[in-house]
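Researcher: Following up on the earlier apo prediction. This time include the ligand. It's nicotinamide-adenine-dinucleotide, with the SMILES given after the sequence.
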Amino acid sequence: MNLPKVMVTGGSGFIGSHLIDALLPDHEVYVFDIVPLDKAPNLMDAKDHPHLHYTVGDIRDPAALRAFWIPDAEVMYHLASVVGIKNYIADPLTLIDISVIGTRHLLEIAREYNTKVLFTSTSEIYGKNPAIPWDEAGDRVLGPTSIDRWSYSSAKAVCEHMLYGIHRASGLPFTIVRFFNAYGPRQNPFFVVSQSVYKALRGEEPLLYDDGKMTRCFTYISDIVQGIIAAAKNPKAVGEAFNLGNSVETTMKEVIETVIQETNNGTSYRIFDTQKEYGKVYEDIPRRVPKVSKADEVLHWKATIQVREGIRRTIEWARKNEWWLEDGRNT
Ligand SMILES: NC(=O)c1ccc[n+]([C@@H]2O[C@H](COP(=O)([O-])OP(=O)(O)OC[C@H]3O[C@@H](n4cnc5c(N)ncnc54)[C@H](O)[C@@H]3O)[C@@H](O)[C@H]2O)c1
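Model: Understood. Below is the ligand-bound prediction.
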């Protein structure tokens, strides 16, 4: 029996690798990533799967993308991106090149073959909109361009504009999913949950940013993956954007305290003063809460794993995967 074919960019990353694990049993999965397979520990379990087809390439290179393209694939899951505030503050040109220029190349080819694009966007799109919870059609409220953190939001927003525009002009099918603080096993240890687990298991102090009162709606990776696939497969999702986020708000302090309790090895946290460390180019968002009714009504999707359980699963996985706890992975 011929299995449906799908393409995934950024497949060796955190979310991409879990998405691939979920797709492999009943799809031929064609992956395009800048990282060679033998340097992709996230795909350790999947790498010899007969349905996995892996191409090393850079989405900034249109010829490489074109050579990779599978014309009869049912979906292009587009995940390749620079992530992590530290990374886009350090190198805004690479962020723009990969997100904006790379996505532009990808969309030109998708338009040529009329391939459905599932675009992975972010809750950062809404910026600091005070009208919580954030509706998919809500405003984007951003700070000045002198604040570096808005570059990621703006880069992703340009990609979303390209998608809506090409869809209207030439009917290209697309769906956008906006993730709210995805976390879980394999995530690079420089996000709040992953970094706290990494540090606590190494006997180091997790970092509490400022007063820790900021809230996020942490969304466990298995929920994220189910939401991505539901969005890609549902014909009613074409031309639409969906928040994929937990509706439960948790403070940063609660998350870090939960990690400390669940790792149970006597560490405490250290305060990280963002203005001192990052200076004026940094600005944080006090609350980030999704409106979740659209995903529920159209995709029949809801986050099901709550923070303590997700943290427990992440810790359990990290204890068994020593490579993830090696020195220097959180820089
Ligand atoms: N993790 C989150 O909480 C979160 C939140 C919002 C949005 N997202 C989005 O989800 C997607 C996946 O994020 P992630 O957390 O898995 O990040 P990740 O860094 O783990 O994965 C990104 C992948 O993209 C690949 N990549 C980077 N540049 C490339 C290039 N030029 N060509 C080809 N491949 C390239 C990387 O090698 C990596 O495998 C991204 O688009 C990100 O913006 C993630």
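Model: Residues 5-183+221-246+285-304 form a domain with the Rossmann fold fold (CATH 3.40.50.720).
Researcher: Noted. I'll compare it with the apo version next.
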